[in-house]
Amino acid sequence: MLWADYRADQARESQAAFRAAFELTDHQGMPRTQEDFAGRWMLVFFGFANCPDVCPTTLAEVAAVMEGLGPDAGQVQPLFISIDPERDTPMALADFVPRFEAGIIGLTGTPDQIDRTAKSFHIFYERIEEAAAPDGYTMGHSSQLFLFDPEAGYVTAWPYGTPAEEIVSDLREQISS
Fold it and tell me: Comparing C-alpha atoms, which of 90, 134, 135, 148 is closest to residue 157?
C-alpha cells in the first residue's frame, strides 16, 4: 500500500512539472505559443487532417465537450496540433478544423518545430508508408486528449474513446476548483 501511495505521489510530482510549450503557426497563418492562451484552459490533441478515424472522431468529441460546457466553454481553448507538417499547411488546417464548429485552433509548423513540440508533450508520432493512403503515407501517433490549466501546466489526459460527457464532468470539476 505504501509503495502504491509513493508511486502515485511521484506521478503527481512529475506531471506537475510538465508544461505546454510550443511555437507554431495557426490555421490563419499567425505565429502562436502557449502564452497566447494564458488564462484559459487548453484542450490539446495531436493528429493530422488526413487521418481516417481517430482524429476526426476525437475532434467531434471535443466539439461535443465544448457544446456540453455551455457558458463555461469560453474558459477553454481547444487546440489541434498537426504531426504531419508536410501536408498540414495552415491552408489545409483552415479547411479542416472549422468543420468541427468548436472554435478549435489548428496549429502546424516546420518538421523541426513539430518534433520539438511532440517531445515537449511526450507524445509519439511516426510516418508510415502505405500505398493506399493519400500521398502514399499515413501517420501513427499518440491519441490522448490533454488538459492544461490557465498557466499551461499539465492537469490530466483522457485516452482515445473517452465519452464527451465524462470529459465535460472532469472539466467542470477542474474549472470550478
Answer: 148
Q: What does the longest C-alpha to C-alpha distance in the chain come to?
A: 53
DSSP 8-state assignment for residue 34: G
Positions of the chain with pLDDT under 50: 1-16
Buried b (16+ CB within 10 A) or exposed e, 133-150: eeeeebbebbbbbbbbbe
The grid coordinates of residue 80 equal: 489541434
Strands 145-148 and 76-82: unpaired
Q: How many residues does the chain have?
A: 177
Q: What angle do CA 154, 138, 135 make, to 5 degrees?
A: 135
* H/E element, 12: helix 2-16
Return the pLDDT at 12: 46
Contact 59, 45 (CB under 8 A): yes
R_g of the chain computed on alpha carbons = 16
Q: What per-residue confidence (pLDDT) applies to 4? A: 44
Q: Residue holding cell 456540453?
A: 68
